[in-house]
Amino acid sequence: MRIGFVGLGIMGGSMALNVRKAGFELVVHDLRKELAQRHLDAGATWARSLAELAHGVDVVLTSLPGPREMEAVGLGEGGLLAAMERGTAWFDLTTNSPTVVRRVAARFAERGVSVLDCPVSGGAVGARTGKLALYVGGEAEVLERFRKVLDAIGDKVVHVGNTGAGAIAKLAHNCASYVGRLAIAEVFAMGVKAGVEPLALWHAIRMGHAGRRRTFDGIEMFLEDRYDPPSFALDLTHKDMVLATELGRELHVPMRLAELTRDDLAEALNRDWSRLDGRASMKLQLERSGVAFAESAEAVRQTEAMG
Q1: Are 262 and 245 in contact (CB under 8 A)?
Q2: What is the residue-averaged pLDDT of the chain?
Q3: What is the predicted pLDDT for the residue at 176?
Q4: C-alpha–C-alpha distance, residues 13 and 2, integer Å
């Protein structure tokens, strides 16, 4: 199998090298040829242009800065659209816009080329070590045809859904991570200003119920739309948030996320949900968004068991 790889930056360079280490024939291209030296030393071939790279390959992988660059590589002058052969595939590893991905994929589909969005998660270390999650959106059959190539890049290849679904999953993952960082900054500012040493606070939080879990553990009730019997009642959850935000106010520590959370809990109490689980307040955001789901407990357990 002959692989074309475009974009040899911090992430792409390591991923391309792992593809070559897995024994695949590799053709590489980047705006800066000097980035390709280690790949050439490992036996890869340099392509002087996108058209040259696309000629004779089975699949193209791209790792680019963003949507604009991905669209230019695909649809721009001298781009992949005119060069890729019918029956081949393009996996875009960029963190991308699902709208752009779908627009580009539609153009390529007219020429018989499959485009799958496949953003990665795991950072530079994961790219070097092959410990990456790959979120794939697009045809499952195409994914399976090239799964061995993706397995050379990451250890968690997840088919999320149709075209654009991989990009959506990556954006949801990153957004939760960044919002979570701000929440951590809020509570550390409060805790340290209240007199607790940072490392002692960090250790204490990590020993607690939430601290021992991964970020997305413990949302089974939310997925099932089932909040009774409660694990920890809404009225007690609200009480804790009131106490935390009161402490922040006493210390003159801004706690914007905490106050939004407290207000949502208060709104949930006004719905007469006090004896439901505290996670019942999560329903409010779904209502505001016009979204509803209720997965079965068995389906949730099966998904959880997948790791």
Answers
A1: yes
A2: 97
A3: 95
A4: 17
Whole-number pLDDT of residue 85: 96
Nearest to residue 14, comparing CAs of 152, 133, 106, 108?
152
**307 pLDDT band (50/70/90 cuts)?**
confident
Total-model pTM:
0.93
Residue 228 C-alpha from the chain's centroid: 31
Residues composing the chain: 307
Neighbours of 167 (CB within 10 A): 26
- Active-site entry in 148, 156, 170, 239: 170
Which of 153, 150, 169, 172 lies closest to 161, judged by CA? Answer: 169
175's enclosing H/E stretch is helix 165-193
Its sign, for the CA torsion 274, 276, 280, 283, is: negative
| Interacting residues of 43 by C-beta distance below 8 A, sequence separation 6+ | 20, 26
What is the C-alpha to C-alpha distance for residues 121 and 175, in angstroms, rounded to an integer? 13
The SS3 of residue 289 is helix
Mean pLDDT of 267-283: 97
Extents of the domains making up the chain: 2-169, 177-305
DSSP states along 91-155: EE-S---HHHHHHHHHHHHTTT-EEEE--EESHHHHHHHT--EEEEES-HHHHHHTHHHHHTT-S
In 3-state terms the chain splits into helix, strand, coil percentages (rounded to 5) of: 55, 15, 35
Q: In CATH, what number does 177-305 get?
A: 1.10.1040.10
Active site residue 239: no
Whether the ω angle into residue 198 lies within 30 degrees of 0, i.e. cis, is no
Write down the pLDDT at residue 34.
97
pLDDT-derived band at 177 (thresholds 50, 70, 90) equals very high
Structure token pair of residue 122? 């795991």
Q: What gap in Å lies between CA 180 and CA 203, rounded to an integer? A: 18
**What's 2-169's CATH class?**
alpha beta
